[in-house]
Write a structure and sequence with these properties.
176 residues, mainly alpha, two-stranded antiparallel sheet, 8 helices, 43% helix, TPP/p25
Length: 176
């Protein structure tokens, strides 16, 4: 079984998944989390024949008693154990070949990785037309800042209360 032509690609996939998410990993050994990721990304787990529980059980079965990781040889044994479950209608050898083809040449998928999102809250918070109170006075109608005039309280010495609608009309009323 081990003389398959895609064994180099299979070993390459093993190494890529072994170092995934771990900066100290050498690629010689794979932990349980990366083994589960390999099975999920390469479609070894199908939810019917092979579940995530099966994947965990096989990992525990092939690793050493006190070990937390599996080597490449143990990895091949694990695939051999999962093959008949994944491909029930095929012989043991054919099933192993098929499962190796699923894994060979694949690398970890980065699906679900958080990306920076533009817009939304930032645009809402920087929209000067929605500002109220003293902040509103810092910008003109176009949304451009007024500079120092928008930040400082410029004293109005006209004698009227600020925002009084009829400012400057007193003299006109007295003369009537």
């Amino acid at each position: 079984m081990a003389g398959s032509p895609d064994m180099a690609a299979l070993e390459d996939s093993f190494r890529k998944f072994a170092v995934y998410g771990d900066t100290k990993a050498t690629g010689q050994e794979m932990n349980g989390k990366n083994w589960a990721k390999l099975c999920k990304d390469c479609k070894v787990t199908d939810g019917k024949g092979v579940t995530s529980t099966d994947v965990d059980i096989v990992f525990s079965k092939v690793k050493g008693k006190t070990a937390r990781v599996i080597t490449y040889e143990e990895f091949k044994n694990a695939l051999e154990d999962l093959a008949p479950k994944r491909f029930k209608d095929k012989s043991k050898e054919e099933a192993y070949e098929c499962i190796c083809q699923l894994v060979a040449g694949k690398e970890p998928a980065n699906v679900g990785v958080t990306k920076a999102k533009a817009g939304g809250a930032v645009e809402r918070l920087t929209d000067t037309s929605k500002y109220t109170g003293s902040h509103k006075e810092r910008f003109d109608e176009s949304g451009k800042g007024k500079g120092k005039g928008g930040r400082e309280d410029i004293v109005d010495t006209s004698g009227y209360v600020s925002a009084y609608k009829h400012a400057g009309t007193y003299d006109a009323k007295v003369k009537k």
